[in-house]
Structures are given as C-alpha cells and as structure tokens.
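> example.struct
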C-alpha cells in the first residue's frame, strides 16, 4: 500500500501531538500529586490519612489535566489552576472509595491495588472518602487559586452541585436504582444517568479555567459534554474486551450484573463508532480556540483509546 507524502506528514503531525498531550498529561499529574501529597502529609499520620493518600495516588489524572489545560487556554497559570485540579481529583478519589464499598459496587481492586476498604476496613474507607470530599472544598478556598473570594466561592458552589444530588451522586443513585428496576433503561435514560455520574465532574473540570479567567465557558462545556459521554462509552467497551491487568480493576462486572450499558444497547461495534463520533463533536466544539486547543483534542482521542 502506497502512502503519499501528505499522509506521512499528517501521521507524523498526529504522533507529535500525541507526544505533546502525553507530556502535558504527565506534567499535570506530577503537579497535582505534589499538591495533594503536601496537604495530606500535613495531617496526623493515622489510618484515615494513609487511606486518603492511597486513594489519591495513581491514575491518569485526566480530570486534573482538563482543569489545567483548559485554564492554560484561558491564560490562567498552572500555579493557580493546580489547586482546582487537585480539588477535582480529591473529589473523584472520594467517589471511587465510596463506589468500591460492599454496599455499592463491592470492588476489591482499583488502579491495580487493593481498594481502601480491603487494605484497611470499611469504616476507614468511609471516613477517608468523607475527608477527601471536604479536602476538595478546602483546596478551592485557597487564596493561591484566585485573589477574588467571589471566584473561589463560585468554584466551590459549582463543584458542590456537580458532585452532589444534582450531578454525580444523582447519577450513582440512578445507577443503583436501575439494578433492581423491573424495566430496563432506554438509551436516552442511560445517557442522562452517565451524564450525571461521570460527565458532571468532567464538565466542571473543563470549565473551571474559564470561570477563573472570567471568560465564556460554553465552548468548553460543549467539548466536555461530548468528551464525558465518549469516555463512558469507552469504559463500557473496556469492561467487555479490556485487559484487567492493564485496566487495574475487575472487568465484565456490568455484564455479570445484567446492567444496561452503551454496549448492551448499541452493540460493541456501534458503541465504538458512537464514541468516535463524539470525539469529532468534542473537537468541533474547540474550533474557536484554533490550534491552541490541539492538546485538548488529543485528550478526547485518548479518552476512547485509553487502558486505565
């Protein structure tokens, strides 16, 4: 098969962008880990704080990346956005600790390591999750995030809404209710559920920098809506055909539990095709930013090709 010079150029360009994205993803992860480790290590050395450190270590830090890269797009420096990035990672870690509990998903493996309630006990895991949730708001209250208290308050309020009964927690409750429902969910209902459970924090992450800069967050919100849904479809695909060793968690549990997923509703190939369409939608939403948004575009492509 012959490859034209133009095709080779485009391939090298894409490889270069992937390299830039991976470098930025890693850089954000290091900055956020440093911030979280510094704060958590300042607390008394007891099982709860050890469980907090355990829960916040590892992972790709995609949400943190979205905060910091979208903030950079709006001319907000890393030294400020890292506080919001650490906050959403603390909130995400809390949700995973609680989601892994026997009363929820009953998982014993997360990021390739024992979950908090397995390594310690259920009470320690619950308290660690509680502490991580409150830590998220403490981080957003830091004057190093923004000099204007009104901006910090707005971020605290919006994260509370995104993570609470109108967002992530609502999605988790909808997910639990669906397990015992007499009638299966429709595709539209699954989309709404996942938009709450997974998409709400992703959207907050992508828009945080715009709020810090005082600019229109809508283009980044549209990007995040498409990205969040693509991310969840990819999760459903990975649950069916992923490698548990690379994923660092148990797979095929949704099928075993009889849960309705994008794969069960659309079929494996159509689910993959839908995820690719959503990536194109995410990229289109970033058009107003031009080439400056290339790294965020790569993040969308990463979301449907990751193994995490």
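> example.seq
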């Amino acid at each position: 098969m012959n490859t034209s010079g133009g095709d080779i150029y485009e391939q090298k360009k894409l490889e270069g962008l992937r390299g830039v994205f991976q470098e930025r993803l890693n850089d954000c992860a290091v900055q956020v880990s440093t911030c979280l480790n510094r704060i958590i290590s300042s607390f008394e050395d007891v099982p709860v704080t050890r469980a907090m450190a355990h829960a916040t270590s590892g992972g790709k830090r995609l949400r943190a990346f979205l905060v910091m890269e979208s903030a950079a797009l709006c001319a907000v420096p890393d030294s400020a956005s890292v506080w919001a990035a650490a906050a959403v990672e603390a909130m995400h870690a809390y949700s995973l600790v609680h989601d892994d509990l026997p009363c929820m998903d009953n998982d014993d493996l997360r990021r390739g390591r024992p979950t908090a309630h397995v390594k310690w006990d259920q009470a320690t895991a619950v308290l660690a999750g509680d502490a991580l949730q409150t830590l998220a708001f403490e981080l957003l209250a830091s004057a190093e995030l923004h000099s204007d208290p009104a901006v910090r308050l707005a971020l605290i309020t919006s994260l509370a809404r995104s993570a609470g009964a109108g967002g992530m927690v609502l999605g988790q409750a909808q997910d639990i209710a669906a397990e015992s429902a007499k009638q299966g969910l429709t595709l539209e209902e699954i989309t709404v559920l996942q938009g709450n459970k997974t998409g709400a924090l992703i959207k907050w992450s992508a828009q945080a920098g715009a709020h810090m800069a005082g600019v229109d967050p809508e283009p980044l919100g549209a990007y995040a809506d498409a990205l969040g849904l693509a991310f969840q479809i990819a999760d459903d695909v990975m649950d069916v055909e992923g490698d548990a060793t690379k994923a660092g968690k148990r797979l095929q549990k949704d099928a075993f539990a009889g849960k309705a997923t994008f794969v069960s509703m659309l079929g494996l190939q159509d689910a993959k095709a839908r995820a690719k369409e959503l990536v194109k939608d995410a990229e289109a939403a970033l058009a107003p930013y031009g080439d400056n948004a290339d790294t965020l575009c790569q993040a969308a492509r990463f979301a449907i090709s990751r193994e995490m």
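> remarks
The chain has one domain: 5-303.
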